[in-house]
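Action item from last meeting closed. Structure (874 res):
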């Protein structure tokens, strides 16, 4: 029994003396040091002689006396104190940080204090370095291009970065302390309730929202919201960047021997484990029962080379202490790092009886070191790879410290060139005074934004959106991080937006004018149609009055038809839907047709209508759109005839090099210099003309100009008030084209005596009119088909049908498809297409489908009979 007690005391003494931590015993009554170990001397610098007969007050070891008061109160109330973090002063005066655990023990029936202090200064330095790194990382996040918003569990916003403030259009003071609901409209909150985020605490929630700015504008964003363990939340707009938690709790070592914060293992000389403390079990994952009787290599990862293990055994078997680091494996396979001190325990014969291993789990420290390095690396990588040009400079001299890749690319300077430059070198000389005033206003913690002109290598100046933030001092000098975004496109976009707004306002004015104009120009002739139709029905009307009424009715109908046609053409021009169908044709035929038409109109006028075309006009051909040219000349002639009361209207074309110049000359009212720039604007009419001459939609000249530009020409105007006006434009000639190479209108050598005529028309009113007209003008029997399918079937049953009038738009099979199928049965049967659209390009479409000619609704008797006479020999 005595030997056993002696052995136990020897083990305790060896553990006490060999611990690398500071262990001391003080008398409870007066605090005098009674005993210290070598670890105390190593940690504090005091030897046994230097502290003998002294108290902690005498050597002034407490940095904060309040820590000693906490120790004393804890011992008096609980009998022990564990894991008290305190600051102590070494003999050299250096301040250190330690974890203190103490317990009251009895020595010779006298109460004493056993204290165990672990120096954690190195760990605190790592924590501080990590915190500094996190601070820099947070500053970079504040300048991130994504918006970041912080709030508490009640939905109250507590912070936001600069880009979040830009997104929501508010200041930080407006956000902090306000409910997050102010960022959304009531409709948006109803669509995506905020409670949806809160109910998913601990899990990120992604949603699409519309942020409502104070000015009423809406910003659509993709938000990623995460509730934090403390009940607060983070909201990130656009990109989500996982916040890496670089903080970890340090394990506190709080036991001495059995309760030591360090793992302790005792083996026999052969390495067989005889004792382990709970901390070692915790570190390795094994229970005490699983370890007793085993060798420490049970938790070895076998990473250490055999030579190092051989050196380890040579050291401890030689009676010396071994200190080093192991990378061991826990029971569950997880690897961990430990710092170990292994010492031999000898008996009175100086024989090694046991080995004592004191082990400290340093996995956390290793990870902290790795995280610190990783954080620094991440910060540098983020800075260098940031797509936004960024640089760091000294505030006192404006010298560049470092620039990222985007800055090198955007400014055109190499890194070596930047290292010899200052911020003044990228600013324009004229901007330097204002720039220097701005620099003077920088505060140490000030976040600054501005828009300034920057200059690239070579002198190219561009507008830059600047965001800068003060960084921690470097070598005692203040530094600042700057991000400079080239906003040239943003400025251009703003200018284009202003132009677009002007166009929108002009469009609104044009829309109002259009509605007023179309209301007047449709209702006026429609009123004439309705009125004269009602008047004709009067029984007491004379023949002369009836003829005048019919004449007025026709005139109103023609005006309404022209108005509708003009609106359709201007709509096609405005929308870009009008098509140009170029082909070779002889303009002489168009002008002869125009002359015959307008000669009949101007017969009773007090002026002369003249046609002037070259003598060789029969050989002059154009490659252009025949239909569009006809419309252009019609609009110009209508305009000239309307404003001419005496003299002449002279029109035609003449050869000009390899082009033809078309012209309309009149001796009318003329156009003032103030008005000549507006005559081609839509709905603009001459304010100096009589009422009759001011009638019309005001679209004739705009349509003419639009069509001229479509076929590659430019209209020219020369005019003088009271003298007249000249309108002209030029189109290139088609060279080496003979008349016979241009297809002439098809003429079928048949008598007008047609036995059967098929009318394909789905509208009963239109068929009634055509049926009556054909019965009065021909002896033919009229067959009726109400759709394309019936037309095909009737033609199959009646192959002697001599003429088909084919409506284009019908239900089921339309007129164009019906024409194709009928032409496959008999390609010689003449078909005249009838359409209510009368759009540019319709004629080409119907002729391409196989139709022989084309008429637009409303059908004019004269035009219909003319088309029929062109297809049949009268």
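Sequence:
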């Amino acid at each position: 029994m005595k030997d056993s007690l002696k052995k136990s005391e020897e083990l305790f003494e060896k553990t006490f003396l060999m611990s690398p931590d500071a262990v001391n015993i003080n008398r409870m009554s007066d605090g005098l040091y009674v005993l210290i170990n070598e670890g105390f001397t190593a940690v504090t610098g005091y030897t046994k002689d230097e502290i003998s007969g002294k108290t902690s007050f005498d050597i002034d070891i407490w940095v904060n006396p309040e820590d000693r008061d906490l120790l004393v109160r804890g011992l008096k109330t609980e009998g022990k104190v564990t894991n008290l973090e305190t600051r102590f002063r070494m003999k050299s005066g250096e301040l250190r940080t330690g974890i203190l655990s103490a317990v009251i023990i009895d020595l010779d029936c006298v109460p004493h204090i056993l204290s165990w202090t672990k120096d954690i200064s190195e760990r605190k330095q790592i924590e501080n370095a990590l915190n500094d790194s996190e601070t820099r990382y947070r500053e970079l996040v504040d300048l991130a291009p994504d918006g970041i918003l912080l709030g508490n569990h009640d939905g109250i916003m507590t912070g936001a970065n600069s880009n979040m403030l830009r997104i929501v259009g508010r200041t930080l003071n407006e956000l902090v302390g306000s409910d997050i609901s102010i960022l959304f409209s009531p409709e948006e909150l109803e669509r995506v309730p905020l409670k949806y985020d809160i109910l998913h605490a601990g899990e990120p929630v992604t949603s699409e929202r519309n942020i409502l700015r104070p000015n009423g504008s809406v910003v659509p964003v993709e938000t990623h919201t995460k509730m934090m363990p403390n009940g607060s939340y983070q909201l990130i707009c656009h990109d989500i960047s996982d916040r890496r938690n670089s903080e970890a709790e340090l394990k506190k070592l709080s036991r001495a021997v059995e309760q030591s914060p360090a793992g302790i293992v005792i083996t026999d000389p052969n390495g067989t484990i005889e004792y382990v403390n709970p901390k070692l079990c915790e570190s390795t994952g094994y229970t005490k029962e699983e370890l007793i009787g085993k060798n420490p290599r049970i938790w070895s990862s076998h990473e250490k080379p055999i030579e190092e293990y051989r050196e380890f055994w040579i050291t401890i078997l030689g009676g010396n202490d071994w200190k080093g680091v192991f990378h061991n494996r826990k029971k569950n396979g997880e690897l961990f790092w430990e710092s170990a001190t292994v010492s031999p325990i000898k008996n009175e014969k100086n024989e090694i009886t046991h080995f004592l291993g004191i082990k400290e789990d340093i996995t956390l420290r290793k990870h902290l070191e790795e995280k610190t390095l990783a954080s620094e690396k991440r910060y540098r990588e983020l800075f260098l790879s940031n797509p936004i040009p960024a640089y760091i400079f000294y505030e006192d001299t404006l010298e560049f410290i470092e620039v990222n890749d985007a800055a090198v690319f955007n400014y055109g300077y190499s890194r070596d060139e930047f290292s010899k430059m200052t911020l003044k070198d990228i600013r324009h000389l004229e901007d330097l005074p204002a720039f220097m005033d701005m620099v003077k206003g920088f505060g140490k913690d000030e976040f600054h934004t501005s828009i300034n002109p920057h200059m690239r290598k070579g002198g190219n100046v561009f507008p830059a959106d600047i965001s800068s933030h003060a960084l921690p001092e470097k070598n005692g000098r203040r530094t600042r991080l700057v991000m400079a975004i080239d906003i040239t496109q943003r400025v251009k976009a703003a200018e284009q937006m202003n132009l677009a707004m002007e166009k929108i306002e002009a469009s609104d004015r044009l829309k109002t004018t259009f509605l007023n104009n179309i209301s007047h120009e449709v209702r006026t002739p429609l009123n004439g149609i309705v009125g004269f139709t009602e008047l004709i029905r009067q029984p007491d009307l004379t023949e002369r009055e009836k003829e005048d009424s019919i004449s007025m009715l026709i005139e109103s109908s023609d005006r309404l038809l022209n108005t509708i046609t003009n609106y359709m053409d201007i709509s096609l021009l405005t929308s870009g839907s009008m098509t140009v169908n170029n082909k070779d044709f002889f303009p002489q035929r168009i002008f002869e047709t125009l002359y015959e038409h307008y000669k009949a109109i101007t017969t009773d006028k007090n002026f002369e209508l003249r046609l002037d075309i070259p003598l060789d006009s029969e050989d002059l051909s154009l490659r252009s759109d025949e239909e569009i040219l006809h419309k252009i000349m019609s609009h110009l002639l209508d305009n000239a005839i309307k404003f001419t009361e005496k003299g002449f209207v002279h029109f035609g074309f003449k050869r000009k090099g390899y082009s033809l110049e078309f012209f309309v000359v009149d001796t009318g009212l003329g156009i003032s210099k103030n008005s000549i720039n507006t005559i081609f604007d839509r709905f603009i009419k001459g304010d100096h003309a009589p009422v009759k001459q001011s009638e019309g939609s005001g679209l004739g000249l705009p349509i003419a100009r639009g069509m001229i530009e479509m076929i590659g020409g430019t209209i020219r105007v020369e005019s003088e008030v009271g003298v007249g006006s000249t309108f002209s434009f030029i189109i290139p000639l088609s060279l080496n084209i003979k008349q016979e190479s241009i297809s002439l209108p098809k003429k079928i050598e048949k008598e007008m005596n047609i036995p059967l005529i098929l009318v394909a028309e789905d509208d009963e009113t239109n068929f009634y009119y055509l049926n009556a007209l054909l019965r009065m003008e021909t002896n033919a029997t009229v067959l009726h088909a109400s759709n394309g399918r019936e037309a095909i079937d009737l033609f199959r049953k009646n192959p002697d049908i001599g003429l088909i009038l084919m409506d284009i738009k019908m239900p089921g099979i339309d007129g164009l498809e019906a024409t194709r199928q009928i032409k496959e049965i008999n390609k010689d049967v003449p078909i005249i297409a009838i359409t209510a659209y009368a759009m540019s390009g319709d004629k080409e479409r119907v002729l391409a489908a196989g139709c022989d000619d084309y008429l637009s609704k409303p059908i004019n008797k004269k035009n219909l009979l003319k088309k029929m006479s062109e297809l049949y020999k009268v």
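Note appended to the action item: Residues 239-255, 687-694, 736-751 have pLDDT under 50 and may be disordered.
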